[in-house]
Automatic annotation (TrEMBL), chain A:
Keywords: Cytoplasm, Detoxification, Transferase. This is Glutathione S-transferase. It catalyses: RX + glutathione = an S-substituted glutathione + a halide anion + H(+). It holds the Pfam family GST_N. Residues 5-84 form the GST N-terminal domain. The keyword Transferase applies.
From TrEMBL, chain B:
It catalyses: RX + glutathione = an S-substituted glutathione + a halide anion + H(+). It holds the Pfam family GST_N. It comes from the Eukaryota. Residues 89-222 form the GST C-terminal domain. Is involved in the conjugation of reduced glutathione to a wide number of exogenous and endogenous hydrophobic electrophiles. Keywords: Cytoplasm, Detoxification, Transferase. PANTHER family: GLUTATHIONE S-TRANSFERASE U8 (PTHR11260:SF676), GLUTATHIONE S-TRANSFERASE, GST, SUPERFAMILY, GST DOMAIN CONTAINING (PTHR11260). Its main location: cytoplasm. Belongs to the GST superfamily. Tau family. GO terms for cellular component: cytosol. This is Glutathione S-transferase. It is found in: Cytoplasm, Cytosol. GO terms for biological process: glutathione metabolic process; toxin catabolic process.
Length: 227, 223
């Protein structure tokens, strides 16, 4: 490693998880080198830095790798204590941000991805029901402004970029109806605002929709074929 | 309820609930414990955790906090001057968080799948368990505890590996963690369980064994 403070990010353009980390680095004003991974042909470096999960994103700082996007986000927040905190100061507010970020990933994201990749009609219907249930919870919370506006892109908002954008892409790629304006008006409104948010657009534009839809369509087809 | 009062809704056998008790005790935080019957959940539990309806739930300053890892970090950040759960260094903190997630996302499910299956399927899942345990064992690196010289966040989150997994393997008639296969993990487990606070918090073995055996019977019964 050339210099001690060097930051490297192993990611892929389509990954919602890699996007989170990149956005956090940009918001913090941290310089980094981005290494684009081809997930069908992972680099030896990636496998060396994340032997447990063999996935992106991986952040390497001072030669030491950190994996798992939420873990990386907290590392970034604790290492670069700039004027832009990602997590709130108050322990209870921090607990809430962490809880909802986990809810989004462990419940909603996981279930909706399984629904998208399911080749069994019965299983898919059941998973869709479950995912809609999680969206209903988020919708109710959004009524109370769970997810912030343009001026509060913090840890939770960064993690919820999956709900604001990627799920809309994935549901189109998979041909399922999850987050729709009619069913979830509060979330939809927030998602549209998020996508158009200048603070994000200036720092790190979201990947182009058509390209993402094509990427996820191909990925989902491949997964279904190998089941 | 007084504002600074701490209440914990838990269950005697739940490893998630016990994590929180370990953390509170290490910090020296007094708390009121409410035992939940998970077949007949209290109205308070359903009010404080309407989303998951699960234990543990910590209530402090009238605010409920759920999810054991989240609760542990809350405890560490709220009672800052007490016993430190997470290390100071951001990199060490990220390693503790990464491996704590690994225990819950990998070790727990693979052990559960192995315990509930039989024959070839069990063999396959047991191999998975061994793979996960090996990765976790490597993180000890000759340290007394995952946290270094003292029990920390990751030790507490890995208490499954020190205790519950041993009871589960006995209940299932399986072999997950043995001293010969994982000497470093075994040694850590013994040291961990030997700590006064941990020892007094762990659920009674015979009771836990009976409960797990009964649960496995239900899981294995033809549906």
């Amino acid at each position: 490693m050339a210099n001690d403070g060097e930051v490297k990010l192993f990611g892929t353009w389509a990954s919602p998880f890699a996007f989170r980390v990149e956005l956090a680095l940009k918001l913090k004003g941290v310089q980094y080198e981005y290494i684009q991974e081809d997930l069908t042909d992972k680099s030896s470096d990636l496998l060396k830095y994340n032997p447990v999960h063999k996935k992106v994103p991986v952040l390497v700082h001072r030669g030491r790798p950190i994996a798992e996007s939420q873990v990386i986000l907290e590392y970034i927040d604790e290492t670069w204590k700039t004027d832009y905190p990602l997590l709130p100061q108050d322990p209870y507010e921090r607990a809430m941000a962490r809880f909802w970020a986990r809810f989004i990933d462990e419940k909603f994201l996981s279930t909706s991805w399984q629904a998208a990749c399911s080749s069994s009609e019965a299983e898919r219907e059941k998973l869709i029901e479950e995912a809609l249930g999680y969206l209903k919870v988020l919708e109710e919370q959004q009524h109370k402004r769970l997810l912030g506006g343009n001026d509060t892109i913090g840890f939770l908002e960064i993690c919820s970029s999956f709900v604001a954008y990627w799920i809309i892409v994935i549901q189109e790629a998979a041909g399922v109806d999850l987050l729709t304006e009619s069913k979830f008006p509060n979330l939809w409104k927030w998602a549209v605002e998020f996508q158009g948010c200048p603070a994000i657009k200036q720092k790190l534009p979201l990947p182009e929709k058509d390209r993402l839809v094509a990427f996820f369509s191909a990925m989902i087809e491949k997964i279904k074929r190998y089941k | 309820m007084a504002d600074e009062e701490v209440k914990l809704h838990g269950m005697w056998g739940s490893l998630f609930s016990k994590r929180v008790e370990m953390a509170l005790k290490l910090k020296g935080v007094p708390y009121q414990y409410i035992e939940e019957d998970l077949t007949n959940k209290s109205p308070d539990l359903l009010k404080y955790n309407p989303i998951h309806k699960k234990v543990p739930v910590l209530i402090h300053r009238r605010n409920p906090i759920i999810e054991s890892h989240v609760i542990l970090e809350y405890i560490d950040e709220t009672w800052k001057t007490g016993y430190p759960l997470l290390p100071e260094d951001p990199y060490e903190r990220s390693m503790a968080r990464f491996w704590a997630r690994f225990v819950d996302e990998k070790c727990l499910p693979s052990a559960w799948k192995a315990a509930c299956s039989e024959g070839e399927e069990r063999e396959k899942f047991t191999e998975e368990v061994h793979g996960h345990l090996k990765m976790l064992e490597e993180q000890l690196r000759g340290k007394r505890f995952f946290g270094g010289d003292a029990v920390g966040f990751l030790d507490i989150c890995a208490s499954f590996v020190a205790y519950w997994i041993l009871v589960k393997q006995e209940a299932a008639g399986a072999e997950f963690l043995t001293e010969s296969k994982f000497p470093a993990l075994w040694r850590w487990g013994e040291e961990f369980k030997g700590c006064a606070v941990i020892k007094e918090t762990l659920p009674d073995r015979a009771r836990l064994l009976a409960s797990l055996k009964a649960y496995l019977e239900i899981m294995k019964a033809p549906k």
